[in-house]
Structure formats: structure tokens, C-alpha cells
Design a protein that fits this description.
Elements lengths: L5 H5 L24 H4 L7 H32 L4 E3 L14 H5 L2 H9 L4 H4 L6 H10 L8 H13 L12 H12 L4 H8 L2 E5 L16 E2 L1 E3 L1 H5 L4 H11 L6 H17 L4 E6 L10 H14 L5 H22 L3 E5 L1 E2 L13 E2 L9 H6 L5 E5 L5 H10 L3 E4 L8 H14 L5 E2 L11 H22 L5 H21 L1
Parallel strand pairs: 1-2, 2-3, 4-5, 5-6, 6-9, 9-10, 10-11
Antiparallel strand pairs: 7-8
The chain binds zinc ion (ZN).
Length: about 500
């Protein structure tokens, strides 16, 4: 019987014991094994003992190698400057002013509320910011398993000199003081941006935002259009539009003129995308101009009292015209699909909305077919829609997978969704991640969470399972993390 050698084991020969092909083992592994660990009985032949030894070696070394490989890939991914293609940053107050700005993020307030803290105490109007921080610290215990909690720990460790892994109520005042000192420094915003390796940060701008007082090269405007599409029946929205554009919208033609003015203003201010979040029920389609004219007339006369069919007709018309203007102005149209607002109206601020798994991208069939020239970076609210998104991006040249939004933005869902995209969608059509942050300090922990998962998927599914070289895997990671955002929004 031939004696197995290392070459047999490391070149994918079937194992004599399991019959499965052994993966190629790369790198150097130092192991100390005793016979008892391998459970090799005295009467096994030398050959079988060798096989058992190599099986043990493989079993024990795989996780070590995988972890080392992941760490190496992560450090390559963590070493590059990145664009954040979707945030809610206010460029005039981009960084946190105190610790309440961080702990006031809806993830903490909604989780604290979900685990028992009353909304009234979280949102008490006269609550002092430091007392709010103390209150939340007292209620972090039930959340300390969550990934959102780990973002806060990472912020505290990276930015606030904290060196513990767990935040306890007694840490509240010390961290408050440290944050006050650091955040009060003149260059805090620049320090955070530099440490987070951010080059450009996309904003979410109301259509009537003057876009003044900030550097639009760093803070890139993005025209958010929810109000126009879904709240056009509100007098206040129509008045804002009229004030901004000096056009009185009376019909389909004047609607188009006024929307075009917004696109002119935004693109002159360096806007690189138009964006909207969409409820699960929305299904875009083109409707006739005559129908739009009648519906707008109804809204002008009756406002929010207008019939639902007329409000829906105007929503469809505004949305369709926005897509036409994206084509004309060559702006990507970010679609954030699937959010049901106010599912839990008693929830804390921004902690009321949820997804509805009944949404389907088939509702967007007419849109994707009608606008082959428009790039649609599509985000889905929940992982349950990811397979559809993966398939649509696989088939439609104009559909791009865009980040891991909200309820799908936790590691378990990111890992599954990312792996599915990486193995089935062209590598040029995936924008890996955006932070969705409200304050700059969150970019670092959120992007690092993503990069750790990206490194894991690349290590396990590309280097180990598909025998890709490490450099090649890193290059794929950098493309989805960094280069695609540049090409899709700036080329
Ligand atoms: Zn957002």
C-alpha cells in the first residue's frame, strides 16, 4: 500500500476515511498533536494512522488558517479610503456634539424600548442630554448581545479612549466627559473622517435644500424625493415646491418643468444621485398625461381630501417623471424598497417602521424595462428580498445591488446576502455597503462590520472553496467596497 505523502493531501485527493476531497492547504501551520488527541488505536495500520493524522491536521488547521486568512484580507480591505454612498448626515453638524448624539441613534432607543424602557422616559421633552445618556446606559444590559451595541463599544474604544468590552452604568459619566472634551475640539469632524478613511459622504437632501454652506465635494448632495412622490397632496409640499421653483404645478407639463428645475439645481451643486424609499405596495407604471392632468387638478382643489386613486395617480406620475429626469441628467436613481411606515406607531422616533415580506421586485418590471439607460442601485429592506435582488441584478443590466439596508444590516443577513451576490452578480454591479448613518462616528464601526464579513466570505468561499489566490480575492473585495461606488456615481 503506498504511503501517503503531504502532496496527496494538499492537492485535493479524496480522503480515505471520509471519501471527500481534501481542500488545498496553504500557508504554514504549526501543530502539536499527541496520539491520544487523534484517538489512534494501537492496531491501526501505519497508513491509516497517517490518514487520521492528516484528517486531524486538516480539522484543526482549517479554522486557524481561515481566521488568519480572514484577518489578512480584512486588513487589506480596512486600509483603503472609501466613499459612503448613502447617509443622513447633516453637513453643517456632521459629527456628534456629545454622547447623546451617539446613544440617541434610533437603534439604541428602539432596542431599549423594545426591552422594556418606556418611550415616555426616552423621549421626555425636558430630559437633559447627559441624563438621557445615563438612562440609556442603565438600560443597555439587555442589548449587549446585539451588533448595534458592538458598534457603540467600537466607537467608545476607537474614539473615546475606552478600553473595556462592556459598557456599564458606572461608565456613563466618564464617557460623557471624555466625549465632551474630544467632540468639543475644533477638528473633531476631520479627525473622525480621517480615521474612518472616508473620502466622500453622500447626503439625503430634501428637494428644497439650498445645498449651501458646505463642501459638496466631500458631502455629496443626493436628491431625496419621498415627499414629492408620496406627499404631493399636502398643501405644504406643493407650496415648498412652488417656492423653490417659482412654478405653479397645474398639470403634467408644469410638474415636469418644476421637477426639472430641481434637477438643474441639484446637479449644479454636484448631486450624484436621486433617491427614494418605497412602500411594499408601490408598483411604478406609466400613466397617460390626460389622467395625470385630471389627478393633479383634483389634488389642487381638494388636497389631502382628494380620492385615493387620484393621489396614487400623482404618485405614479411624479415617480415616472423622476425616472425620466434621471435619464436626462444621467443620475443614478437609488431605490430603497420595502418599508412600511408606522407599523408600530407607539414606538420611539424612527423605531416604528418595518418591512413586509410580500413585496416583490416584479412590481418594478415595467420601470426596469422602460429605462435601460438609468442605473438603479437597489436596496431591499430585508434579506427575504435578497434573492430577488440578486436575480434581477443578474438579468437586468441597469439593476445594481446596493448595500445592506436597515433590517438586513446585521452580520447573519449580510453574510448570506453578500455571498449570494458575490457568486451570481457581475462584480461591476455591486455597491458593497453604505452606513446610513446620522452622525459621522458610525461609519467606522458599521463599515468595519461589513469588511469583516466581506473578508470572511472572500476567505471561505473564494480562497478556500474556489482556490482563488488571496490577492485576487482582495481585489474583488476592493471592487465592491470601493471602486464600484466611484465608477457608478462619478464616471
Ligand atoms: Zn437611509
Amino acid at each position: 500500500m503506498p504511503k501517503p505523502n503531504r502532496g496527496d493531501i494538499s492537492h485535493g485527493q479524496p480522503s480515505a476515511i471520509t471519501g471527500r476531497a481534501l481542500p488545498e492547504i496553504r500557508g504554514r501551520v504549526t501543530l502539536s498533536l499527541s496520539q491520544s488527541q487523534c484517538d489512534v488505536s494501537e492496531d491501526l495500520s501505519r497508513y491509516r494512522a497517517s490518514i487520521v493524522f492528516f484528517e486531524c491536521l486538516r480539522f484543526l488547521s482549517k479554522p486557524i488558517m481561515s481566521q488568519e486568512l480572514r484577518n489578512r484580507i480584512f486588513s487589506e480591505l480596512d486600509d483603503v479610503a472609501i466613499i459612503d454612498p448613502h447617509t443622513h448626515i447633516n453637513p453643517l453638524e456632521a459629527a456628534s456634539a456629545n454622547l447623546a448624539d451617539i446613544l440617541g441613534y434610533h437603534y439604541y432607543t428602539e432596542l431599549a424600548h423594545s426591552s422594556g424602557l418606556s418611550r415616555e422616559s426616552i423621549e421626555a421633552p425636558d430630559l437633559d442630554p447627559q441624563d438621557k445618556v445615563r438612562l440609556l446606559f442603565q438600560n443597555l444590559g439587555p442589548l449587549n448581545n446585539t451588533i448595534q451595541y458592538s458598534w457603540f463599544v467600537e466607537i467608545a474604544r476607537e474614539f473615546l479612549d475606552f478600553d473595556e468590552d462592556v459598557l456599564l452604568p458606572e461608565h456613563a459619566d466618564l464617557l460623557w466627559e471624555t466625549a465632551a472634551t474630544k467632540m468639543g475640539g475644533e477638528d473633531w469632524e476631520s479627525q473622525v473622517i480621517e480615521k474612518s478613511r472616508l473620502t466622500k459622504i453622500f447626503l439625503t437632501n430634501d428637494f428644497d435644500d439650498p445645498l449651501e454652506g458646505f463642501d459638496t465635494d466631500r458631502y455629496v448632495p443626493c436628491l431625496r424625493t419621498d415627499d414629492l412622490v408620496f406627499h404631493f397632496s399636502k398643501k405644504e409640499v406643493r407650496e415648498r415646491l412652488q417656492t423653490t421653483t417659482s412654478i405653479d404645478v397645474r398639470d403634467s407639463a408644469t410638474l415636469k418643468d418644476s421637477l426639472r428645475q430641481l434637477f438643474v439645481h441639484f446637479t449644479q451643486k454636484n448631486a450624484r444621485a436621486c433617491a427614494i424609499s418605497l412602500p411594499p405596495s408601490f408598483a411604478p407604471k406609466k400613466i397617460s398625461e390626460a389622467r395625470v392632468d385630471r389627478a393633479i387638478a383634483q389634488l389642487q382643489q381638494r388636497g389631502e381630501e382628494a380620492e385615493t386613486v387620484d393621489k396614487e395617480a400623482v404618485s405614479l406620475a411624479v415617480f415616472w417623471q423622476l425616472a425620466e429626469l434621471c435619464r436626462e441628467f444621467k443620475l443614478p436613481f437609488d431605490l430603497m424598497i420595502g418599508v412600511n411606515r408606522s407599523v408600530y406607531p407607539e414606538g420611539v422616533f424612527q423605531g416604528q417602521d418595518l418591512y413586509d415580506s410580500r413585496v416583490s421586485l416584479i412590481q418594478y418590471q415595467e420601470l426596469f424595462n422602460a429605462f435601460p439607460e438609468v442605473v438603479f442601485p437597489v436596496s431591499v429592506l430585508a434579506s427575504v428580498t435578497n434573492q430577488e435582488l440578486t436575480s434581477y441584478a443578474w438579468i437586468f443590466p441597469n439593476v445594481i445591488t446596493h448595500g445592506h439596508w436597515w433590517y438586513s444590516n446585521t452580520p447573519a443577513f449580510i453574510e448570506a446576502d453578500l455571498a449570494a451576490r458575490l457568486e451570481a452578480v457581475p462584480r461591476t454591479k455591486q455597491i458593497g455597503y453604505y452606513s446610513d448613518m446620522y452622525k459621522l462616528e458610525f461609519a467606522l464601526p458599521k463599515f468595519r462590520m461589513y469588511k469583516r464579513i466581506l473578508a470572511k466570505v472572500l476567505a471561505e468561499r473564494f480562497v478556500m472553496d474556489r482556490h482563488w489566490g488571496e490577492e485576487r480575492a482582495v481585489d474583488l473585495g476592493l471592487q465592491v467596497l470601493q471602486r464600484n461606488s466611484e465608477q457608478i456615481f462619478f464616471d
